[in-house]
């Protein structure tokens, strides 16, 4: 229910975190499957396991630790979510998106969302990154919208736009960071489709998603982006393409989580350096 990400609940957690850490992060980062290693790249770190934060949900997926990491990237105060919450675990979409409201009420101004995704666009290769220019919120379109329920005007409007969720200025800076750091994979710009999971898609579903204009598919990120945007946060997001979605029937291959984590490990160092470069240099003006 909506009390799971109510203003009061988020505000209480924000107050707890501001008092306990004394930190004032300006940017928050959500780390997707296998990208948890990015948490080690901050200095002046303070690590808070989700379980220690009153009112915060806890993570249960292999490859997702459950820590909130405060720290510095260069001289910038940031906060990282090492491990996120997914609807496929059984969390409500209101629980999944609660951290976005907590960050907003802490005074965070922008959020970087990262994930592992399956490549639908046939030009893509495993190990590429796709900067997200737009999304298909399938569950949101058919009734599982993170803003379903009474609207709290203190957070945002009743009927928010979502044609402008992904901030071009931040996206360009992210692209520049990947370029500066010689990221070995290609840097793509595309449409991410969110499906709730935990199943990977059928072949017919992958073909449908391509027809609908999607370039990569995953099980996260969009609910967080919608709620962050609703609250007025600047949003940018990218997918690490960890495997190519299957478009042929009777194929011997099948999508699996081990492959997702393996590609995450393969690209971990270059992702870490690219994202660290972005965090230390981003400008919100
Ligand atoms: N075909 C396909 N390939 C993918 N690779 C990563 N993900 C994102 C989902 N990641 C899950 C399971 O690996 C863990 O959160 C997907 C996906 O949803 N579909």
Question: Main attributes?
Answer:
globular; 24% strand; 5-stranded mixed barrel; binds the ligand Nc1nc2ncn(CCNC(CO)CO)c2c(=O)[nH]1; alpha/beta; 285 residues
Q: What report would you give on this structure?
A:
- This protein has helices at 7-21, 93-106, 138-141, 168-180, 203-211, 222-230, 257-281; strands at residues 27-31, 43-49, 67-73, 76-82, 110-119, 129-137, 187-194, 216-218, 234-244.
- The mean pLDDT is 94.
- Strands 5-8-7-6-9 form a 5-stranded mixed β-barrel.
- It is 31% helix and 24% strand.
- The chain is globular.
- The protein is an alpha/beta fold.
- Residues 33, 61, 86, 116-118, 197, 200-201, 217-219, 242-243, 245, 255, 257, 260 line the site of ligand GU7.
